[in-house]
Amino acid sequence: MGVAKWLADNLESKNTGSWSNPLGALIFGVHQLGLSGWKPGECAAIENELTVWQDKGLFEKEGSEDGKKNWALRLKATLDRTRRLTEEYSEALLQIFPQKVQMLGKALGIPENSIRTYAEAEIWAGVIFQVSKLCTFLLKAVRVALGSQGWDFLVPKVVSGTLVQVENIVPGSLPSSLEGPVILVVNKADGDEEVTAAGSNIAGVVLLQELPHLSHLGEKVVSVTCEDEEKVSDIQKLAGKYVRLEALSSGVNISPSTLDDRDADSVVKNVPSNGSSAAKVRGTQGSSRLAVKAPYSNQCSSSAGVVLLADADAITSGAKAAACGRLASLAAVSDRVYSDLGVPASFHVPAGVVLPFGSMELSLEQNNSTETFMSLLEKIETAGLENGELDKLCPQLQQLVSSLEPPKDIIDSITRVFPGNVHLIVRSSANVEDLAGMLAVGRYESIPNVSPSNPTVFFTAVSQVWASLYTRRAVLSRRAAGVPQQAATMAILVQEMLSPDLSFALRTLSPTDHDHNYVEAEIAPGLRETLASGTRGTPWRVSSGKFDGLVRTLGFANFSDEMVVSGASPADGEVIRLTVDYSKKPLTVDPKFRHQLSQRLCAVGFFLERKFGCPQDVEGCVLGKDIYVAVSQVWASLYTRRAVLSRRAAGVPQQAATMAILVQEMLSPDLSFALRTLSPTDHDHNYVEAEIAPGLRETLASGTRGTPWRVSSGKFDGLVRTLGFANFSDEMVVSGASPADGEVIRLTVDYSKKPLTVDPKFRHQLSQRLCAVGFFLERKFGCPQDVEGCVLGKDIYVAVSQVWASLYTRRAVLSRRAAGVPQQAATMAILVQEMLSPDLSFALRTLSPTDHDHNYVEAEIAPGLRETLASGTRGTPWRVSSGKFDGLVRTLGFANFSDEMVVSGASPADGEVIRLTVDYSKKPLTVDPKFRHQLSQRLCAVGFFLERKFGCPQDVEGCVLGKDIYVAVSQVWASLYTRRAVLSRRAAGVPQQAATMAILVQEMLSPDLSFALRTLSPTDHDHNYVEAEIAPGLRETLASGTRGTPWRVSSGKFDGLVRTLGFANFSDEMVVSGASPADGEVIRLTVDYSKKPLTVDPKFRHQLSQRLCAVGFFLERKFGCPQDVEGCVLGKDIYVAVSQVWASLYTRRAVLSRRAAGVPQQAATMAILVQEMLSPDLSFALRTLSPTDHDHNYVEAEIAPGLRETLASGTRGTPWRVSSGKFDGLVRTLGFANFSDEMVVSGASPADGEVIRLTVDYSKKPLTVDPKFRHQLSQRLCAVGFFLERKFGCPQDVEGCVLGKDIYVAVSQVWASLYTRRAVLSRRAAGVPQQAATMAILVQEMLSPDLSFALRTLSPTDHDHNYVEAEIAPGLRETLASGTRGTPWRVSSGKFDGLVRTLGFANFSDEMVVSGASPADGEVIRLTVDYSKKPLTVDPKFRHQLSQRLCAVGFFLERKFGCPQDVEGCVLGKDIYVVQTRPQP
């Protein structure tokens, strides 16, 4: 390892001379090996490569890449190829010698040890051993230079399991007795193995050979490769032990795991590429039937013939052929598509036709083989592995299918599409490949190089591809996935056979680190079969950025052979292999070619990703300057972490997941939206909230940085609120002459030209239209809706998910027709839940539907699944009734369904729903009255519990599994539609269909008493008294209409007088039973009022009445209006459940005020501000802009004795009026107070008493008699007002009070800046009504900075994204913003190169600074500037550093917000403060 480290260090220092001797020795050894006759062509190619790498040396850079790294990667590829050559020599020798040596040695009497080691000795004694040692030594050095440890991983994960070594991965390779997770050590693999078919418990694979990264081996389990012989030896020592495999970006490690960790480690844990831990979720094992759509075989058979590629669809031709047809249409427009960097995304698709589903069946019928075929297929379905039955049947079935001769007219159809001498490839397109959960890559045959001019060869190729549907491997794979063999069928895809220079497979989502920004590609010389056939060797591996164009070379190719089609050879289904010399391959030796091809492949992949709407797995080839795409598969969206976890949470097996594609017309909308008819902010059913983005919906859905427009609109009052404006930097639109013929591109958005931002009328109308659409859909579907769609001109389009069958049954169609609902308006949301296989299913109602008795729960019960009840099956269920309070059970009817529907299979999720005949003599619910009685009471308890929780009668569905009851859904059933509720809405003019309900769930108490009080006496409307009604037990006694009367009491707010207005006489009280208030039922108890303190104890009644009065009066003062309060009494505590605003919103004054402003009365609502209640000495209202003469230099204040209400309530009299100068401190007394009364708070503390009026004696008021006090207070109020004026940046209207020596500010309102001439004209120009203008206030710490700045991250001079320009002024920002004459310092700094340019120096005469001992206690003053003392003028180093720091801040904010920024801030000492940043206009 020391010499290897020395070589690596020399390479790091750019010295490759030290590598010459070992490389020269290796070249000589390979040359000698070639002379021996062992693969001379391969030896010559390796010799040429090593010689070129040695002679060429390394470059500092290869394009934008590190030359040292690429030299090492290039050399590693050839060394791996050389080592593979030596391994193949050793394997060949060991196949030839051992058996013959054994026979000859025994005959000659040679010792056993010599016989056993003869073959190994022959290897050790030859040059092959020395070549192998040199390879091992040099590979170590290369790995050290590259920082590699001999490992390579495909997917970063951590797994645990028993380590088992196998030769290869095939179904049946693991013994069935092996339980628990398994990690396989595999000697050989092709890369297209279906790992789960070999065993569902395989958690990881360690492969002892190199493998292309984009092979499908690593898609389901963690897969790593190991090339280091020492590490391989260490791994093999752990065979049979429980180990932990960690495959992380930081490295790969295999270590023994303790038995204590077995349970915890049996879960496969996904580890993100950044190393952060992910949540552990235990998955469920077990197979599930994969959804495979059976094609319409009969229809296809009758049509026969061929289908043109452009007309292929998944139903007739399979997913692969359909994808090729889609690609053909995209190829036609791709030549007009370029990436953001100008790289063309153009590609071609080989011409093709399809022999559709049913063609094989038609051939079987014509050859009279259908009966034999079906017989063999049925036997294969159940054939076992152990006795070899399957191994016998599969070849028989393959032989039968291989002998088929397709219809003769197929040749005629194909020759009309292709010329007679064309070379074609025959490929599979089955309904059991390219599926989610069953990719089946490489599973079925592809026969290259055939021609319709030779019908025999062509038909043989077709039948061989058909026969590959029934290989042992394919049959076991489908069996493992739960797919019946008879469900599998195959179409044939026939395409033009190209003889490409290169073939590729790329993924638009990086499989290594799941980075969406990069496309990774693997490229092989010659035909794609080199990549797909499991040929030993590795491809070129490159990565290219979608947005930045960065190309990285990840590995060089070292396949020994390339597969090509010879033009001179006949089209006989064969290809030839040619030895590859990579020293002559441009992709290895020409970094410019590698860079350009990588970017072109990236552009093609990204184009397809945008077109299909999800990451793609793309295969194709390069022929000259053209790129051909053969297939693009939906690869990742079904297997994102989010999707996998979602299915796991729902209990859906991952292998059961499949995907149907919804193809809709592609619009190029002006706006796209997503709305919810139940407000997600406050769960208010009365409002619809919508998020709107410019352009396509992908702007909302793709995670683009920025925010949409957010609006809320009332369903009933039409009130529109703007909750936020959009700030996406880009909108995604469809380019091209028509919406469907171009790519999706991004355009920068100018929101000053977007009506939704600048036109409030348009925003209002669109919000109301979206609300109407959402509310219509909500009413139609009967529940809150989540709606997506777009706006195109004046039209709104709704994009809804469509259901597959149940939405279009005859029953559903007729139901909608009867309701007058257009069929095209129907849609459905899907609820996915765990599928149980229950013993019984039920539907119950907690309000008896027979006699509407609240005391009984009625249930209908069916055997098996709920579908028996819901599907209209003929028959009747068991019907039982059980009392909520008395427990009385009545049997109302017995079940007589002929069948029950159950789930077949070993587990509830792996089979189909089947019907079984019911024998009710064996059903406990029929024959066991005790079981029926207990189940009825349990269902009653469940229903009653839900009724109490939701607060209204319930309609509940669920099932019984063993001893457990499962509830599937509980719906609000009755309370919204009682006669009282319906009449109430009718009287209010509210449509019945508009009614909906939100549920409030609170802790359930078991109180002694419950009450409802009003702080405005409902009897005589006297504000001085609180009236309360009190009932024993729960509030339901008051609210449920129970016959009887409550206790009624009245208590004075101010005099404390208590009056008893009536005594309670309810017969029953409702209480909660059980050990705690929440664990029992509500029961009724007979009331004995002779034992109720509220009846017999006048002192208790008096005290409780006064306490309730105090609570109500407190809430009335807090909310500022009379209150309607409900609550309960538990022991000595009073609980308030709800207090509603009762009167102030509807006073005459408030109603007339809204009428004058044109505000609909129903639009009025109220938010509550609760503040501490003080009892001040004085209250004031001041204005920082003198209202008398509009002089900015003076603050005027009005002061009253006591509470502010003296000023605000219209009390007759005048306040003290004073004026104080902001700058000169001059105080003027403008008037003295003469209010007769002052309003004060009584009580021991300011919050526990009433507001009373006291007569004022001004001869004792310091503000009247003490001029010094008046002078000081005036100046203090002036200072407060001026401080707030500077903080808010405009004149202020301030209210507050004085308590002792302290001044309290209650509110400061923006008084003038909203209505300056400039502001008014600005809104007028934008079409914004003046009354619509409002303002929020931002309060920040006031600094006294050295410098202030305004910068833009997009250079405003030349619109260069690479530079940040800043303007800097001395002192406060007001110097820049106030229009002061002069110019600032102007600097420009490069984001990437750090280049600083000085564009101008400052020459302001004055700087504005904050006076005073600290920045917040003085006024703003102006000081004359001497620039000869300003570092920014005289110190270029300081200017350079500050410019770069400001550039770094701006660039950081630009990246964070995702668009150029306009930033303002200041510099204080060494610190930079940012005050605000906004998108740059």
Q: Which class of secondary structure composition applies to the elements? A: alpha+beta
Please tally the helical runs, counting DSSP H or I stretches of 4 or more residues: 41
Radius of gyration: 42 Å
Beta strand %: 25-35%
- What share of residues is helical? 25-40%
Biggest sheet: strands, sense, closure? 8 strands, mixed
Mean pLDDT: 76
Tell me, briefly, the overall form.
Answer: globular
Uncertain parts: 261-304, 634-642, 654-665, 736-742, 800-806, 829-833, 906-912, 1075-1080, 1244-1249, 1413-1418
What's the count of strands? 63
Q: How many angstroms separate the termini?
A: 61 Å
Short description:
The protein is an alpha+beta fold and 1481 residues long. The chain has 41 helices and 63 strands.
Keywords:
globular, six-stranded antiparallel beta sheet, alpha+beta, eight-stranded mixed beta sheet, single chain
